[in-house]
Each structure stands twice: as structure tokens, then as C-alpha cells.
Amino acid sequence: MKRALLVIDMLNDFVREGATLEVPRTREIIPSLQKRLAAARQEEWEIVYVCDAHAPDDPEFRNWPPHAVRGTEGAQVVAELAPLEGERVVPKTTLLAFYGTDLEDHLKSRGIEEVILTGCVTNICVYFTAIEAAVRGYRVRVPADSVAPLEEREGAFALGQMEKILGVRVER
After folding, report:
1. In which domain, by residue range, is 133 found?
2. Measured in whole angstroms, how far is the alpha carbon of residue 165 from the centre of its chain?
3. Among 71, 80, 69, which residue's Cα sits nearest to residue 26?
4. What's the structural domain count of the chain?
5. Which residues contact residue 27 at a Cβ distance below 8 angstroms, ignoring those fewer than 6 apart?
6. ∠ at Cα 90 (86, 91), nearest 5°?
7. CATH code of the domain containing 55
8. Is 0.90 surpassed by the pTM of this model?
9. Exposure string for 59-73, b = 16+ CB within 10 A, e = fewer
10. What pLDDT is attached to residue 3?
11. pLDDT digit string, tens, across residues 84-108
């Protein structure tokens, strides 16, 4: 089975201390993500970074402070997890990884059947990406040690919903 590891929104504006939309737990999952990336590269899985990339006047900023504005340092993947040459970066402008992006075309062109979702935020972008992937027929796995919630309770709820409703394999 062909697999893809998706690294979702591990960007400076979410990870760095004091960042615009800091998610403190993201710093705790970096070692786990580094191990997963190394293993995925060794197994020659497809690796895709799915990253917020907003315009300065993005409508999303009505609900959230400006973050991950295209071309800024805040919109860059943190150095500890930086993509290697040849690894795909898919910019997104919503909470959804597939909507309005070429992610599905990219995965299909490589024959991907299973996606492993990592990154942040467990109960927002990871959750919505799990929904999109599941309804498109992908097998979906989420390693709990490689996703970061805003709040533990919300993250646990999202993982439970992924398991019960979508049939996602949550690895605890």
C-alpha cells in the first residue's frame, strides 16, 4: 500500500513561543515528527507539507488574528522539520487541506491509498483534513503523539470523533 505522511501547519506562527497563534503543544511533538519524517523518508513514502498561506486581507482573519501570511517568516515550516528538496509543499487558505488545493491530484498521481496525518491543530486542521481524506476514500491514520491540540479536551474529542465516525486509525 502506498502511503503519504502529511505534515500540517507546523509553521512558525503556530510553533514559536510568543507567535501570533502559538499552540504550545506543537513544540512537544517536534521530536516525534522528526522520527516519523526520518522513517517515512527511509521507507520512501510520499511526504507532503500542508501549510496555511494567507493573503494579508484573508477573510479568516475575522475569526483569527492574522497568521501565516504568504511570504512571511511566520508562514514558513519550522527549521527542525523543514522540507527536503523534492518534498511537496501544498499551500492552503482554509482549514481544509483538499479544498481549493492540488493535494488530491498530487496524491492520486502517486497512487497513494493511505495518509498519515500529523501536525496542528488536532481539533481544527488535522480534524478537517481527516474528514476530507476519509470521504475521498483514503485510509487515514493519526498518531496521537504527532498532533497538537489547542486544548487537551478538544484534541481528545476530535480524535474520538475521527475514530468513531470516520473510521480513522488513531495510534495512541
Report:
1. 3-171
2. 20
3. 80
4. 1
5. 15, 17
6. 135
7. 3.40.50.850
8. yes
9. ebeeeeebbbbeebe
10. 98
11. 999 999 999 999 999 999 999 999 9
